[in-house]
Specification:
Elements (H helix, E strand, L loop, with lengths): L2 H11 L2 H24 L9 H12 L22 H5 L22 H20 L7 E5 L3 H16 L3 E5 L4 H9 L3 E5 L1 E4 L2 E4 L1 H10 L3 E6 L11 H11 L3 E4 L7 H13 L4 E5 H5 L6 E5 L2 H8 L9 H43 L11 E5 L5 H10 L6 E3 L15 E5 L6 H15 L2
Parallel strand pairs: 2-3, 2-6, 6-7, 7-8
Antiparallel strand pairs: 1-9, 4-5, 8-9, 10-12, 11-12
Length: 439
């Protein structure tokens, strides 16, 4: 319904003064939606749920499965068992992409194809505004971070002939599964303990970069203490000097201005082929999506060309909707709250440590702290916290898998204060930690 048609309807039914007031309300409702569809950027102010729902309804109504007079005789016609089933994908029942090309427009899905383009552009703009101003191209992928690593690595294998991935040790299975899924050999780079922190052995990485053929590097910016971020700027320089592809797993790093600054500097200083971040960890969406950006548009095109078959639209529209519901201003406020809650978490853990004769590990991490549990049954404490309805703490016994090194000298519990956490969550969790650790 265009503006002239709205005016004709109003003019025929109510007095002019009332019609003008009605047009003002409609324009106020539609203006942010028009702006998103026209400019395709991360909005400064958030959109309301009715505005997002209206945009989604308009776009999904463009797909051919909504045409009441269409004769649908193909093997894939977006048929769904019930309206509820369709709503689970925001009624983008045809999905996105075409066979072998994730971003290809789909003839039966004009609305979904447009939605995907808006999502990709909006997500890239968000990543740029939140720190990576030197990212040139981006893609919302309906896969989790580990699977997106596999997609990117598969693209680099096909296009650049890489056969192995140099991977600084992180005790986390998802990236390793992604490397294996891409049919590549993982070459693990050891870590070293420096003070409380666990860091990559940069000398060993440089040696392997020099001596390993047909390889890429996968580094990590965000993980649980005591593991610290890999020095991505130095690694980017090494990869540039040796002409080796470099991928950064930035799982939940978008929320951290310091982390984004490190990646931006890495792109400026050397070679970075792709940066992969989680939609749910950074933008408060359901699990299942990620955003890949690159200073090289060709890498994003290769990645899109690596996806097999069509894809579900659900994680893509969820990511777009979350970006619009947040907006830049609200996201900056959430970042501010995250830092305040992180400081509160540290203060509370320091208080607990003093009372139970433990200490906080001195490790640089943008969202988490670890408190030692030496000479305590850390696994039992972790189990009791879970039963006390505290979700998320990571309990690691001395020497066990999880510290990203062999024989870490402390047992500890990690608690996070990531974006979206509430002050009351931190207070309740730390109160219960003190109770359980004091038994």
């Amino acid at each position: 319904m265009d503006h002239d048609e709205i005016e004709r309807i109003l003019d025929k039914t109510i007095p002019e003064s009332m019609a003008r007031r009605g047009r003002t309300t409609i324009d106020a409702l539609l203006a942010p939606v028009r702006d998103v569809l026209n400019r395709r950027i991360f909005p400064e102010s958030s959109l309301s749920d009715p505005q997002i729902e209206l945009m989604v309804q308009i776009l999904s109504s463009m797909d051919t499965d909504k045409d009441p007079d269409a004769a649908r005789v193909g093997e894939r016609e977006a048929r769904v068992a019930s309206p509820f089933v369709g709503k689970l994908a925001a009624n983008f029942n045809h999905g996105i992409g075409r066979s072998g090309q994730l971003t290809a427009p789909q003839p039966k899905a004009a609305g979904a194809s447009l939605m995907q383009q808006v999502a990709n552009s909006t997500a890239l703009d968000a990543i740029r505004k939140l720190g990576l101003s030197n990212a040139k191209s981006g893609l919302v992928i309906p896969l989790s971070t580990g699977m997106s690593i596999a997609l990117v690595m598969g693209a680099l294998r096909r296009e650049l002939g890489i056969e192995r991935v140099l991977y600084p040790r992180i005790d986390h299975a998802s990236p390793q599964r992604g490397i294996a899924l891409a049919g590549l050999e993982e070459v693990q780079i050891p870590t070293v303990i420096e003070g409380d922190a666990v860091r990559v052995d940069l000398g060993d990485l440089e040696k392997k970069i020099t001596n390993t053929k047909s390889c890429a590097v996968l580094a990590t910016t965000t993980f649980f203490p005591p593991r610290e971020s890999d020095p991505v700027k130095q690694i980017a320089r090494l990869c540039s000097d040796h002409d080796i592809p470099f991928v950064i797993n930035n799982a939940y790093g978008v929320q951290s201005q310091d982390t984004m600054m490190q990646i931006r500097s890495a792109i400026d200083a050397g070679r970075v082929d792709a940066v992969i971040q989680s939609s749910d960890k950074n933008f408060l969406t359901p699990i299942g999506g990620s955003i890949v950006v690159s200073p090289n548009q060709e890498v994003i095109e290769w990645t899109a060309d690596t996806y097999a078959g069509r894809a579900t639209a659900a994680p893509v529209i969820q990511t777009l909707a979350a970006l619009l519901a947040l907006g830049h201003e609200r996201y900056k406020e959430l970042q501010k709250q995250q830092l305040e809650n992180l400081a509160l978490l540290k203060d509370n853990l320091l208080n607990i440590a003093e009372k139970i004769n433990q200490r906080i590990l001195e490790v640089n991490n943008p969202v988490a702290f670890a408190i030692t549990m030496d000479n305590l049954d850390v696994n039992e404490i972790g189990a009791r916290l879970y039963n006390a309805r505290v979700t998320g703490p990571r309990a690691i016994k001395k020497g066990n898998y999880g510290s990203s090194t062999d024989n870490y000298p402390h047992s500890y519990i990690v608690m996070n204060a990531a974006i979206g956490v509430r002050k009351e969550d931190v207070v309740i969790a730390t109160t219960k930690l003190l109770k359980e650790a004091s038994k």
